[in-house]
Amino acid sequence: MTVSADIDRKAPAEQHVHGDAKPDRAAAFPASRFLFPLAMVAVGVLVALAPYLSDDVELRESFLLAAVYITLASNLNIMIGYAGYINFGNIVFFGLGGYICVYLATSWHWPLPAAALAGGIAVSVLALAFGAGILRLRGAFFALATIGVNQAVQQFVANFEPWGGATGIYLSLDAYEPLGGPMAALWLIYFLLVAVMVASLLLSYAIKTSRFGLGLLAIGQNEDAAGVLGVRTARHKALAYSISAFLPAVAGGLFFFKSGIIEPVGAFDLTLSIEAIVMVMLGGCGTVSGPLVGAFVYEELRGYLLTSPTVSQLQLVIAGALLLAMVLFAPGGLVGFLHQRWPRTRAILQ
Amino acid sequence: MSALLEVSALSKRFGGVQAVADLSFTVAEGEILALIGPNGAGKSSVFNLINGVHRPDSGRIVFAGEDIAGEPSYAVAHRGIARAHQIVQPLAGLSVLDNCLVGACYGRDNLSISAGRAVVHEIAALVGLADRLDMPAGALTTAGKKRLELARALCGRPRLLLLDEVLAGLNPTEIERMIEVIRAIRARGVSILIIEHVMRAIMSLSDRVVAINLGRNLAEGTPQEVANDPAVIAAYLGDPKLMNVSAAGTA
User: What is the interface pTM, i.e. ipTM, of the complex?
Assistant: First the structure.
């Protein structure tokens, strides 16, 4: 076409003439494209090594929970922050991944990494099938459907005998022998969970800066307009739902293998589902670093509130008040607030 | 001139309303065709049928030799039909640049982000948004949002552009600028199907005019022929003042 040729030829000249005061940063500073992912990897290494070098088991347990929360929040953010779909039942990925992994590791004697990965893949495939159906719904109806999926899976598992029904599956100490015994296993699982956390952040960054992510962001803003512009909305949404299921399912496998027990009430706990939404909102919905900040702050706060004698009964009350305050006064979350106050941070803190 | 778009015997009913009835027209390659008619004549419905927002009950929509009736919107966009909406639909939370990038990356050519950026900068300069690329789309003025609609559609490098009242709500100076932009777009070989109420623009821009009423063909011809057609005057230009405006536009 003449049009295309014309545009190609003219593009550089036009850019020059019009000064282009603020060129896109990625093109102007190619290094910054790698800066953020490198920072994420550095955070991961730091988090992994800090408790190991100081041999601080308490710190490890706190960071392990933070890694799980960050994984949940970061992947949830792909649906909420990018595609604009509130997945209330996001915890179903975590629980189902946990069940598949624990079952494969105990009954079929699969090695832990393989079992956890298999859980992730299976849940991702299931999410693709489910997503194609429930993503026809929008807004509150979608949110309700995701709760329905979680409750239905919980009921199914509670009545599924091979998975122990309502009592669940218990791991014997022998299960940790292939990993070098329980003590070594705890450290190994911790490192794996931190790796999953870093992978979640890198995945989120890769999606946000990709053409696919641009389509998701368009859907999040105005789904009909996105379709008219050429975005295959149904396929984008189902893929995003499936992708956002993978790493939480892997994390679920590692987490419940470490716990040594998995049962339906704990695995499909809707409270944790809602807490994950609080973390995303707290940190900054739609940003890559927001869920990291939000989940970490929330975990630390939760740990403090649970152990503090005066307010230990009020942990969820305070979490609720916090969510209310964020939505009212800083809807962009902590990272969004930073971006607003100091626009320069936008380029550094994705 | 060969026909780029050929609409034949197109019909669509919404409940008790026959929005489009047995409508036929063609848009030639490189042509600006205006679709006019009183409010509720079915103009926007025709656009919705062409770009796949609604599925026609019957009839054919042949674009570049292939029947596209009933195809989903994204597929129609990939074929090279882009649309600027009557009611602006900015992706308000995204920057003007990202709005246009969506158009560029998901348009006819499936461009990568970096290739899309080059197209966006070029189109933004053409449409007059180059200095506002970093602004959130929601912060643009009405005129700015209208331009964004146009820019976003153009970034998909369409062969056919559907313009739905892009001049509505603009002041006379802005209308003049927009008309220049539309001329520049046509000069690049893009065919344009335009719905417009600003008669001055219709008269000066379009090669041919198709007038419709109640979803049916009413008249067709050069702008002057259609403006003087008794049936059109009765249905649409009944107000003598509008007649004067149209006469002034052609003078």
Answer: 0.88
